[in-house]
Amino acid sequence: MSFVTSIRRLGAPFTTWWLGLSGNMRGILWISVGSLIIALTDGLLKFMGGTFHPVQLSFCRYVVGFLLLAAVFWRMGRAGELKSNRMGLHWARLFLATIGQTGIFMAMVNLKLADATAFWFSKPLFTSVAAVFILAEIVPARRWVATVFGFAGVVIMMRPGIADIDPYVLVAIGAAFSMAFANVLIRVMAPTEPPNRILFYYHIGGIVLLAPAMIWFWQTPQGLDWLLVALIGTGTTIGMICFVRGFSVGEINVAGPMEYVRLVYAGLIGYFFFAETIDLWTLIGGLVIVTSALYIAQDESRSR
Question: For residues 281 and 159, is the Cβ–Cβ distance under 8 A?
């Protein structure tokens, strides 16, 4: 009996149990696991940010992600599935996504984890705006109200007039804005571009765009640092796969809300490992942002 066969037999009871779950339950579990992995990765990112510049960590994230998916890309390349007639859209999307990914890395390192995570969750608010300009969608009035309500939460967290606005708060908001537009472009490309092709150009583009910056920011990792840097890219990639799997088997209005548990994880990791506290403004603003984002997601799900 081969080793692979033995492993399959040992895992058979789990597979039977797993497939016996409803699609929504599997989606909830995928999103929950993905949220925990991303939160732990954010904590590691913040820790490593004390030694390495976030731009270098973002570059390494793309390199590691590409290596992890290299076998998939190789098979697609041999089958001629990486060729695209929409390279303009690919470059626009990967440019926006690279800005968003690098920006949130900078925010995670320089802001409290809970704050950076809450600002990141403003993406659905910007997505509603982006859909109007890119897709010419007609957004219902109720969704505009929810969007304005969510932006009020962003303003609350910024605390204008009460304290000086941290520049990295603007970086976090800009990252959410950029990633929202990048995500809307996926909807434009979806009819002709399979997800793995988009992932290929996303990773290659991120490496190409960030490579010149390594002249200034590169610092060679030593010893254990190599493993920790690789774990950042690995955790981000695995978390992304969990989200893709979760939303592919579960309804967005059922599985989607589990993503916001990440805000709780961020608060706990920040408190226990970085001695960060969560003030009242963050609690109120974060709650407003999450509430509005949940409503927008559920309203869009009902509309579809």
Answer: yes
